Amino acid sequence: MDGMDRPGMADFLRRRREALQPADVGLPKGPRRRTSGLRREEIATLSGMSTDYYTRLEQKRGPQPSEQMLAAIARGLRLTVDERDHLFRLAGHGTPARMARADHVSPALLRVLDRLEDTPAMVLSDLGETLAQNRLAAALLGDHSGYTGLTRSTVYRWFTDPGERAIYPDSYHEKFAREIVSGLRATASRAGRDTRVAELVQRLSKESSEFAELWERHEVGLKPARRKVIVHPELGGIELDCQFLYTDDLAQALLVFTATPGSEDYEKLALLGVIGQLAGR
């Protein structure tokens, strides 16, 4: 027995789906929508899974979902942490630890992200992991959804993958390295004995002498630059303003990139939207 409460989970999923409005996830209502809630295929797309798989769960069929699949469904349905934990219990799993580095994206930040269609935006954890990004952010910085393990962290990739630095001009590399290491130091201070933070620090200390030297400086919480130049492979340098919106516990942040209206950089962002559409075909 897998311990699933299939009827309970099916009812919970259906009710949460029907309670979501299209505007809650950045979708147009459309003239042919007969109900106010979302369709099963829309939740499946938001969760990154097939419609058939999600439909079987709502119909009390299919195998026990993995913890990864449940976390994806929780994000797709914009569940609160309490609702996510309830879903895990219905599926016969223990509830995830409520740590700052949990993969559950803040519903409040997701609601804002869903409404940002004309400018790059993404949700980051305090380990530099991309938890969600919109289409324009993927076009600007690359699709981060394929990263797993430690490579999900920008901090880890910056010191172990030379290609990660290509998105910034050489003149900015030293400053950015100091910023992200000092940010990790602040995260470690808040997290205490969190094993994921400790693992990241230990691995980077062994694999990167540059990181080890910066870590020993004990700089904490240097403010990230509010204006950056991003080097795009097709559009070249784009100078952008960077705005951060943090959750109360500082565990996650919404990062939004904007350009001055009427500027050359503003025009490049418009072209970025076209490039993103072509790449998605």
Automatic annotation (TrEMBL):
Residue ranges, annotated region (Disordered): 16-37
Domain called HTH cro/C1-type: residue spans: 37-84
Cross-referenced InterPro entries: Cro/C1-type_HTH, Lambda_DNA-bd_dom_sf, MLTR_LBD
SMART domains in the cross-refs: HTH_XRE (SM00530)
Gene3D superfamilies, sorted: 3.30.450.180, lambda repressor-like DNA-binding domains
Domain of life per record: Bacteria
Regions that span the bilayer: none
GO molecular function, one term: DNA binding
Pfam families: HTH_31 (PF13560), MLTR_LBD (PF17765)
Protein name: Helix-turn-helix domain-containing protein
